[in-house]
Design goal:
This protein is of the alpha+beta class and 168 residues long. It is built from 5 helices and 4 strands. The radius of gyration is 16 Å and the shape is globular. 30% of the residues are buried.
Length: 168
């Protein structure tokens, strides 16, 4: 798939088959994530790859926005020990968001479905995910990305809106 095709085809997929994703595809997703840009090349990310059904079930109840039945979840976390110093520490959010988008695009390229479920800045969700994964206080879960084979394929559609563009 060409890059622009993947960008235009990417959609949030919320219904998945029970089929497992092989480790080769998971590795590609993580390579794509780690190819994202980051402020001062600090790469303040950590990725938790979850295929264990018990942990997936726990994550589904982390917030009202995380209840999806997929065979794989990748939790993208910001590692504050790798982040920029104050006052620029919060750039980890942008860095991890870029890595997350790369995961979504790579999944689309491999005909996988994905959905980004925000965790940060919801304090209760951050606390639940942190507890489920036994994260140190230096790791902040940004999101849970559920990935799987989609029940139905989605055609690409264009979200282009000229009203959002302002030339000066």
């Amino acid at each position: 798939m060409e890059l622009l095709d993947a960008i235009l085809k990417r959609r949030s997929i919320r219904r998945f088959t029970k089929d497992k994703i092989n480790i080769e595809k998971i590795d590609i997703l993580l390579k794509a994530a780690m190819s994202a840009p980051s402020a001062a090349n600090r790469k303040p990310w950590e990725f938790y790859v979850i295929t264990d059904e018990k942990i997936l079930n726990e994550l589904r109840s982390a917030s009202k926005y995380t209840n999806y039945e997929a065979s794989l979840a990748i939790i993208v976390c910001g590692n504050l020990t790798k982040a920029l110093d104050e006052p620029n520490t919060s750039y980890w959010i942008q860095d991890c968001s870029a890595a997350s988008e790369n995961i979504l695009l790579a999944a689309t390229d491999m005909n996988l479905g994905s959905v980004w479920c925000g965790v940060y800045p919801q304090k209760d969700a951050v606390d639940r995910v942190s507890r489920i994964l036994d994260l140190s206080s230096d790791l902040i879960p940004l999101n849970i990305i559920y990935i799987g084979y989609p029940v139905v394929n989605v055609d690409s559609s264009h979200e282009f809106d000229k009203d959002c563009i302002h030339y000066r």
